[in-house]
Amino acid sequence: xxxxxxxxxxxxxxxxxxxxxxxxxxxxxxxxxxxxxxxxxxxxxxxxxxxxxxxxxxxxxxxxxxxxxxxxxxxxxxxxxxxxxxxxxxxxxxxxxxxxxxxxxxxxxxxxxxxxxxxxxxxxxxxxxxxxxxxxxxxxxxxxxxxxxxxxxxxxxxxxxxxxxxxxxxxxxxxxxxxxxxxxxxxxxxxxxxxxxxxxxxxxxxxxxxxxxxxxxxxxxxxxxxxxxxxxxxxxxxxxxxxxxxxxxxxxxxxxxxxxxxxxxxxxxxxxxxxxxxxxxxxxxxxxxxxxxxxxxxxxxxxx
Amino acid sequence: xxxxxxxxxxxxxxxxxxxxxxxxxxxxxxxxxxxxxxxxxxxxxxxxxxxxxxxxxxxxxxxxxxxxxxxxxxxxxxxxxxxxxxxxxxxxxxxxxxxxxxxxxxxxxxxxxxxxxxxxxxxxxxxxxxxxxxxxxxxxxxxxxxxxxxxxxxxxxxxxxxxxxxxxxxxxxxxxxxxxxxxxxxxxxxxxxxxxxxxxxxxxxxxxxxxxxxxxxxxxxxxxxxxxxxxxxxxxxxxxxxxxxxxxxxxxxxxxxxxxxxxxxxxxxxxxxxxxxxxxxxxxxxxxxxxxxxxxxxxxxxxxxxxxxxxxxxxxxxxxxx
Lengths: 304, 322
Hints:
Helix content of chain B: 55-70%
Strand order of the largest sheet of chain B: 1-2
Oligomer: heterodimer
Order of helices and strands of chain A: HHHHEEHHHHHHH
Largest sheet of chain A: 2 strands, antiparallel
Shape of chain A: globular
Strand content of chain B: under 5%
Structural class of chain B: mainly alpha
Number of strands of chain B: 2
Helix content of chain A: over 70%
Strand content of chain A: under 5%
């Protein structure tokens, strides 16, 4: 029972990280109608920039906070140089160009930071564990991720639902041309949204860094998972991205945690522990296929 | 027919095909064995690119999971081989049939969706099989599996580099021939019509979904063939054959060569491999050590191609008639 609780918490933590990544992606999709494969590169850049800044400032928190404006700038530059030219193009051009950006960023990281991976250690003040129930310890750092993720999710919900910028974002998602015709500076809005998406991706990258490692291509596989999430949730829907991220987080973690024991009942131990992570990944895609058959535009997508 | 070969486009195509036809003789004459293995891979990838072009170029369906058919063809050969079935007469039809079956299944589900959803669902299904490959402990999981090449008793020795190359080349010619028949048949015209306006095609009474599904299945079958050849080329299979980056490479190749043109995918494959092999040495000339970072040049090149060179290499020969 305690084990189950820990795994569910891990699932929530992964889900929130995935939500941060998916939020930016679903916004750029929904508002700019842009397939951005390079979103994972922003996740990677976030982690690398954080590694450098944490080294300079000698403080995890300070470095992490400085990373956010840095990646916002990076997002603005990428938007202005490449993305802006892609909005009016079809999806194939966007796939091609952002695929090129992935190659560019992966190689750029190799040039700047070298081919070897980096590691960011868990900050001192979060390296202990806390008891979630008496006698059930849980790492404080993972708790911090859940807390930050939840706060950001609430902030984002507030931003989108309650503020003027959020109103424009929602209006842009449902009819871009109309709000441009109404005199909204849509280019500024696009830059802002893209920069915001970059910040969220970088935040996810830097928070995940102490749990995994900072390496080239770290954003590529997780990007596909983020795409799956926004497709399940419905493209352009923040709420959908949140729900889908939570579901995918649980499937992944619970699958990894409980499948091996189940598989061992009829497989060898080695085969079971190798097959379990793969099966839990497969499950995620099966869920996506199921959702799309049931609702071709995702759980919360706009019907067309 | 002959008149078509007098244009620059026709002459270039004939020249390329001729060079490819005698490539083993050339590499032997100049003692460049390494070039033959690149040539073999170019021919195999070209088969896959031509097959992707059927749905991407002619059909306008951005399938982002085409490398999965490399994996299906490859694993069909590898798994049968691991169980002692080494005859190509069994391996190859099984590989092609499995690829077609998977394409039919994925097509039936994904062709219901449009636009971005189609891109993502084809990608996701490819990832699904990728992770199945990673999970197959018995067949090497992540590390892949060394296999022995298919046997066609007495007919052809797959271990002989030159005869294997010629086999691949003949199959490429067959694929190109099929594609030209496909593109100019009524079937192909329905697919091309649906690309520009599928509502109108439906209104004209064509069951667009079924036509597309058939095209998707055929495309998958040829992709599987390319996978079978790829496994035989390296005598090795691994999940990396079907990683999504390979699917991206295939899209790059088709667009680079010229979408919806018969020989575009072939030009694209050659250009892609030539760039991959020549950018590092060229960059090393500029500044020693830069060659390692060739993708930092290649990436922005893709961006520029996407932005400014949609017609691909084929359009360098001028506009097509009709």
